[in-house]
Design goal:
The complex is a heterotrimer of chains A (about 300), B (about 300) and C (about 325). Chain A has 11 helices and no strands. Chain A is an all-alpha fold. Chain A has one domain: MetI-like fold (Orthogonal Bundle), CATH 1.10.3720. In chain A, helix 2 crosses helix 4 and helix 4 (about 85-120) packs parallel to helix 7. The longest helix of chain A is centred in the C-terminal third of the chain and has 38 residues, at about 200-235. Chain B has about 300 residues and is an all-alpha fold. Chain B has one domain (about 85-305): MetI-like (MetI-like fold, Orthogonal Bundle). In chain B, helix 5 packs antiparallel against helix 6, helix 7 packs across helix 8 (about 170-200) and helix 8 packs antiparallel against helix 12. Chain B is flat and about 85 Å long. Chain B starts with a helix and ends in a 6-residue tail after the last helix. Chain C has 2 domains: about 5-95 and about 175-320, Rossmann fold (3-Layer(aba) Sandwich); about 105-175, no CATH class. Chain C is built from 11 helices and 12 strands. In chain C, strand 4 and strand 5 form a beta hairpin. Chain C is globular, with a radius of gyration of 21 Å. Classes of the chains: A mainly alpha (about 300), B mainly alpha (about 300), C alpha/beta (about 325). At the A-B interface, helix 5, helix 6, helix 9, helix 10 and helix 11 of A face helix 1, helix 6, helix 7, helix 8 and helix 12 of B.
């Protein structure tokens, strides 16, 4: 019994150890700083924005950013066609992007992982059904799916999250299932079964820690993609509806004023690129550190 | 190998059916198109008339049956909005999208593949850093934004390229590039890692022991092995291209399939939506099948 | 007196890593006569494989570099040759068999393709003559139905057969020197003996000079004429095979030999050498084996590596007890 208990502790300890192996010396400092900045912006949006993101002010329409002629420090990044402060909208927009990303990954990732564990551990028909469903979902163009769902369910925050989650789960299910299949055959699982552990216990104590590496890597690699999907949906009009400012809708709003007021479309895009690039770089670094085998998951 | 193809083919058919059911239900759930079609002062009788005309009053399973039987005969119904057969609309638009996709694929192959290979071969040096920069940005910048920026710079300000629409070969440049960039980024990274793995392997060492030149080692021995990974994602790429098409075509007003899809969804045009989704499914499934066959050809280990 | 075919003089191959300079091969010297088999023995990581790769100048760059010494093949210094010339030498004058047959063959090309490649490159064979030579080579290494096998892919062959194919590829252009890096370690025990016989036979037929890397003294006894024992990147003892077995001098050699179980042994426990080999980026000055040596004395911790001393005719040791 004591031997078995020690084994259980070991697997979780190993996982923790692999996380700690990420030496501070080699952390990608700039991406992490950028991410933290945006995170803080999103959380403390109310406190830091100079203006309200939705307050319209027609006399102050189309003011260029502060460093251009005609700009003012009152509106550092200028205003849009309705006189709304671009900087404030970008700050609030980060809220939407990060929140949607977080929630979608939570639901999609969690759901996918759960299904993957079930599929891998049960095998047989259940496995086959889940995998077929996953394959079909994976093969389908994500934005089309997300668009359909978002439009079907009606534009709102929850529905965008649901739509994106549905496009995400399949990848997790597939990857997790693969891991489960290989872990299932390992000795310590057989040992646990011999000693009489319940299925649930085996899954939680033995299989999960080994699988978590994979999941964490996938999560970090996908954050950037999810943010882009949300922005694209917003751009196409199927995202979180106005008056909430989103980066995608800001770009869309500025379309007609590209020549006269380039900053309305350009600046939110820069924000997107900064955040996504940082997440991608961090994801790469994390995946190299935690599990070099998972590189193929880097696609999309 | 024949058996393998047959099995995959049937799996594809089943997937197609599942998708048809899903889209059928989704389309119905997405809302009532009648409100969009009727003038404001329509009477209940008018409404009744439209509903009957569209067959919306029949029970769902019956509607589905009608839908399927018609589809199998090549009739996907008529667009609610434009009163033109769906198949005709799709038929008109697909070639345009294919042309754009072709341009994008050219860019991906001509620029992406060499960049990916060179990045691995010259690891740590300029080529590698350049490739990774291109790839990193490609995966971080959203298409719609890149498209708009390019449009603004090259078309509006510099007047070098046409703003939008389809026409001369110059029209292909910006949308093609926008469509290509994201996928190219993925290919570069995947190919690079694949090549790094291959170049590290013992059989490459054996080839060096034989006295094979570096160029042959990179382009024959390592590359052939590295192709496996990107090819296996073929189906995913097709799906991605369609995804990119929706956005790119909307931004550049390209009269293609992607835009059609977007309009269909936006206007809740059931028949068109169904048609679009089914066509997409067919395309993706076909590409998956071709990819699987290609993969089996490239990797002798899985043939038997 | 046999003619010296290969002479390695004070070879130094270092790896420049983040942690420091790894002195994988630090001043190794030995010579091999024509048609002789020279065995390189030692624990994993002692530098035997790197020495072999150095001879072929295939040390993995940019981390690894040959920083000193000379390698004379038939009198010519290989370290002074251009990469172009080396490529011509590889495969035609020197060849190598690697350890793991599972990974030595490219999975996406047929056996035939891989066998023909060297022949096309160095002997410029084409068409029917190429095919015939391929079949001949496969027959030579004991593979039945060679035409059929030429069209097979590596995954369709067993481990033993794969290693034979590797042997065929290595010998395809009739090299003068063959390096075998633990060729039987990955094979089943039952196949090992067959493979060794095959190698011996091929050597005698062609008058091949061989360098045989192994950690197994049993194989040494069977295959080698002369043996060099390596430890932590350095050569510690070199002698003719029989001499070494009769009169092992260096404490490390003695310890290695006694850790192999023998039938006549009375003791219950196997002797093992205490401690671990030193990290190669942090070698101690003086004798590198001293920390683990049971017969060490105060002399052994001197500042220098013990010099080469000839204790018997042709039997050299690097040990302070004799220096």
């Amino acid at each position: 019994m004591m031997v078995q208990l020690k084994r259980i502790n070991d697997t979780w300890k190993q996982f923790r150890r692999s996380l700690l192996k990420l030496q501070i010396r080699r952390w990608p400092v700039v991406p992490i700083l950028v991410i933290l900045t945006f995170l803080l912006m999103a959380i403390f949006a109310n406190l830091i924005t100079p203006h309200s993101p939705t307050e319209q002010s027609l006399p102050e329409r189309l003011i260029p950013p502060a460093w251009q002629a005609g700009g003012s420090t009152d509106h550092l990044l200028g205003t849009d066609v309705l006189g709304r402060d671009v900087l404030s909208r970008i700050i609030f927009g980060s809220r939407v992007s990060l929140l949607v990303a977080f929630l979608s990954l939570l639901i999609g990732g969690l759901g996918g992982t759960l299904l993957g564990v079930i599929a891998g551990y049960s095998g047989g028909k259940l496995d086959a059904v889940i995998m077929r469903a996953a394959d079909s979902t994976l093969a389908f163009p994500m934005i089309l799916l997300a668009l359909l769902l978002a439009v079907t369910l009606g534009p709102s925050l929850q529905n965008v999250v649901i739509a994106i989650s549905i496009t995400l789960w399949a990848r997790y299910a597939r990857a997790v299932r693969g891991e489960v299949l290989s872990v299932k055959e390992r000795d310590f699982v057989a040992q646990a079964k011999i000693v009489g552990c319940s299925r649930f216990r085996i899954i939680v104590q033995h299989i999960l820690p080994n699988v978590l590496n994979t999941v964490v890597v996938l999560l970090t690699l996908q954050v950037g993609w999810v943010i882009i999907v949300e922005a694209t949906l917003s751009f196409l009009g199927a995202g979180v509806p106005p008056p909430t400012p989103t980066w995608g809708s800001m770009v869309s709003d500025g379309r007609e004023y590209l020549v006269a007021a380039w900053w309305i479309s350009f600046l939110p895009g820069i924000a997107i690129v900064m955040v996504v690039l940082s997440f991608n770089l961090m994801g790469d670094w994390l995946s190299e550190a935690l599990d070099p085998k998972l590189r193929e998951a880097a696609v999309g | 190998m024949g058996r393998y193809i047959l099995i995959r083919f049937f799996q594809g058919i089943i997937a197609l059916f599942v998708i048809s059911i899903v889209i059928f239900l989704l389309a119905r759930l997405s809302g009532d198109p009648t409100s969009l079609l009727l003038p404001i002062n329509a009477t209940p009788a008018d409404r009744e008339h439209i509903v009957q005309y569209l067959g919306l009053d029949k029970p769902l399973p019956v509607q589905y049956q009608i839908f399927i039987t018609q589809a199998l005969q090549g009739d996907l119904g008529e667009s609610i909005r434009v009163r033109v057969p769906v198949t005709q609309l799709i038929g008109e638009r697909i070639p345009n999208s294919l042309k754009l996709a072709g341009a994008a694929l050219c860019i991906i192959f001509i620029i992406g593949i060499p960049l990916g290979v060179m990045a691995a071969y010259k690891k740590g040096r300029f080529m590698d850093k350049l490739a990774r920069l291109v790839a990193g940005l490609g995966q971080s910048a959203p298409h719609f934004w890149v498209g708009l920026i390019l449009m603004e710079i090259f078309a509006v300000r510099l007047h070098l390229l046409p703003v939008a629409g389809m026409g001369t070969w110059q029209h292909y440049i910006m949308p093609g590039f926008v469509m290509a960039w994201f996928e190219m980024a993925a290919i570069i990274r995947l190919l690079r890692r694949s090549m790094l793995d291959s170049l590290d392997s013992e059989y490459i060492r054996m080839a060096r022991i034989k006295g094979v030149s570096e160029r042959t080692i990179v382009w024959k021995h390592a590359f052939r092995n590295s192709l496996l990974a990107p090819v296996s994602f073929g189906g995913v790429y097709a799906a991605m291209l369609i995804t990119c098409a929706i956005v790119t075509e909307t931004v550049f007003a390209w009269p293609g399939f992607g835009r059609l899809a977007y309009d269909a969804i936006l206007f809740r045009d059931f028949p068109l939506m169904q048609g679009v989704v089914l066509t997409t499914a067919v395309i993706v499934i076909t590409v998956n099948l071709v990819t699987d066959i290609l993969y089996a050809y490239l990797d002798p280990r899985i043939r038997y | 007196m046999d003619k010296v075919h290969l002479e390695v003089e004070n070879l130094k191959t270092y790896f420049f890593t983040r942690r420091g300079v790894v002195k994988a091969v630090d001043g190794v010297s030995f010579s091999v006569n024509q048609a002789q088999t020279f065995g390189l023995v030692g624990e994993s990581g002692c530098g035997k494989s790197v020495s072999c790769l150095s001879i072929l100048r295939l040390v993995p760059e940019p981390a690894g570099r040959i920083v000193g010494g000379r390698i004379l093949l038939g009198g010519e210094n290989l370290l002074e040759k251009t990469e172009e010339k080396m490529r011509k030498i590889r495969g035609s004058r020197i060849s190598m068999i690697l350890q793991d047959p599972m990974t030595s063959l490219n999975p996406v090309f047929t056996i035939g393709d891989q066998l023909f490649e060297a022949l096309q490159l160095h002997r410029h064979l084409k068409g029917q003559s190429l095919l015939d030579r391929g079949k001949e080579l496969l027959k030579k290494v004991g593979i039945a139905s060679p035409e059929f096998r030429l069209r097979n892919y590596p995954h369709e062959l067993s481990g033993g057969m794969k290693q034979r194919v590797v042997g065929a590829i290595a010998l395809s252009c009739e090299p003068h020197l063959l390096i075998c890096d633990e060729p039987t370690t990955s094979l089943d025990v039952t196949i090992q003996a067959q493979y060794l016989s095959l190698l011996k036979e091929l050597q005698q037929q062609a008058g091949l000079t061989m360098i045989f890397v192994t950690h197994d003294f049993g194989i040494v006894a069977r295959m080698c004429d002369r043996v060099g024992v390596m430890y932590a990147g350095r050569m510690v003892e070199v002698a003719d095979c029989r001499e070494l077995f009769n009169n092992p001098t260096h404490p490390y050699t003695k310890a290695l030999m006694s850790s192999v179980p023998k039938l006549e042994m009375r003791e219950e426990r196997l002797l093992s050498i205490e401690g671990e080999p030193p990290a190669l980026y942090n070698l101690p000055t003086g004798c590198s084996f001293a920390p683990r040596c049971t017969s060490r004395s105060t002399e052994c911790k001197m500042e220098e590596f013990p010099p080469n001393v000839e204790v018997e005719d042709g039997h050299w040791v690097n040990c302070w007890r004799y220096g």
